[in-house]
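User: Sequence in, structure out. Go.
Assistant: Echoing your sequence, followed by the structure tokens.
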Amino acid sequence: MKIGRFSMKTKQGKADDYDDPPRPFIEHLIDLRNCVVRCAIAWMLCEIAIVPCAPAITRWLMAPAAQSQSMIQGLSWTAGFDILIDIMLWGGTALSLPFLLFFILRFIFPGLKHSERTVIVFCLCFSTILFGGGVWMAYAATLNICFQVLQQLNVWMGVKVEIIRLDQHADIVIKTIMAFGLAFQLPLLLLALGWVGIVPSKMLRDKRRHAIVIIFIIAMVLTPPDPVSQIVMAVPMCLLYEVCIWVIRLREIARGKKDEPDPVAE
């Protein structure tokens, strides 16, 4: 794979070293300026490009509440505009991410070793899978469960909800989807730190109970106010935490690093 003047392939017999020859500091500033300008242009173009798709995205956002007996309507003159701004902000940013990553990697990759670049590419690929999995889980399962729980709670409390504001509904759906996608990136951070040797697997095992508590707190903050959504987010994150421990441990075994003895056990 080639990114700008940089290629992921290394020459045969060449050690893991830097590929970028020494250059004047001003050239690095010029490259940084070009990177920022290209990222800004790509982001603005994607913000504009997402506008024709806004009506279809709006219908997609309404789908999780389709089974609700309440009507979903826009009850203010600015409801459509508010939803359009949210779609442009979040949808345009998501659409521009591949271009932003390309320009950023084109700037930083020449200054990294081949092993460091390999880790970054792996993390980006795995990050995309985790983000997609989080979005799918939020849209396919969590939102339906959340709306059903909230509807049953309204019935139990004797609160009759006949009309749902479209802008509020879209805001809940967008925030929930983004929260799940971003929350599923946290195990990847641990995996990257453990892969390069900063965080050992033994530390993750010892701090498992603290990590579970922190995960449930994060799920409580990011999800809608019902315990079912919190559990749906927290349980997969706990499983990903365990996967990170095993992957990092296998990496340590491959490097020939033995597990450190526990001083308490001695």
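User: And one key feature?
Assistant: The two ends are 50 Å apart (CA to CA).
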